[in-house]
Specification:
By secondary structure, the chain is α/β, with parallel strands linked by helices. Helix content is about 40%, strand content about 20%. The protein has two domains: about 160 residues, Rossmann fold (3-Layer(aba) Sandwich); about 40 residues, no CATH class.
Length: about 230
């Protein structure tokens, strides 16, 4: 029986991972799963080694303030993965956590294949990171086709799989006609899916709305959130 460890770091990653695992389970009944995951993976019967909130509450965006907690959680996760001894470590998004774990796992057991879903945004900053990924990632699954050139350049195996939000046609468009003024423009606001992100970004976004409303009267503000 093949074994896959699914590694996520936040609710949006848990949801994204569940779409992949659901399809795998439909076509392969002979795979054993274990994870760091949340409610979406749990609904598929995939057990998590600890509550995903233990990661999201740490706040990987504040690395310096949480350095000791982060290091301990990474080491604990690596230990559990090595004990499970999966054929594949399938990490999803949250690179500050998942890729640190993957790198350590690979250094301990090179036989574990490492596949990462949702490439870090190297086109935005620190493109040089790609060279380091080659040391411990066997394959990268890409949301956007333009990302391929960054990984092809370093001869890192990759596959463009598309964005899952576009697969569900029902979620492509949202009808807001009943809550917005037709004479106003829309500004979308995203406060993140992690509690630590929301706590930091929400007050800033609210101050932004207040400033905009003081100077302009032509915008509607729409907050977006994940269904955890």
């Amino acid at each position: 029986m093949k074994k896959i460890f699914v590694l996520t770091g936040e609710p949006s990653g848990d949801k994204l991972a569940s779409t992949v695992i659901d399809k795998l389970q439909q076509n392969h009944s002979d795979i054993e799963f274990l994870s760091v995951g949340g409610s979406h993976l749990n609904k598929l019967g995939v057990k998590s080694i600890y509550d995903l909130k233990e990661i999201t509450y740490i706040g990987f965006t504040s690395v310096i303030l949480n350095l000791f907690k982060i290091r301990n959680k990474i080491n604990e996760t690596v230990k559990k993965i090595i004990e499970f001894n999966p054929d594949i470590l399938f990490s999803v998004d949250s690179p500050d956590f998942t890729l640190r774990v993957a790198e350590k796992v690979k250094s301990i057991n090179p036989n574990i294949k490492t596949i990462h879903y949702v490439a870090p945004q190297v086109w935005v900053w620190r493109e040089g990171r790609v060279k380091n990924f080659k040391k411990f990632l066997d394959h990268v699954l890409l949301l956007f086709n333009f990302e391929k050139k960054f990984f092809d350049k370093e001869s890192i195996k990759n596959t463009f799989v598309g964005h899952p939000l576009l697969e569900n046609k029902e979620n492509v468009k949202t009808n807001l006609s009943n809550i917005i003024n037709e004479n106003k423009k829309i500004i979308s606001l995203f406060a993140g899916s992690r509690t630590s992100e929301t706590n930091i970004l929400l007050p800033i976004l609210i101050d932004f709305i207040k400033l905009m409303n003081e100077k302009f009267d032509e915008y509607n503000f729409i907050f977006h959130a994940t269904d955890q």
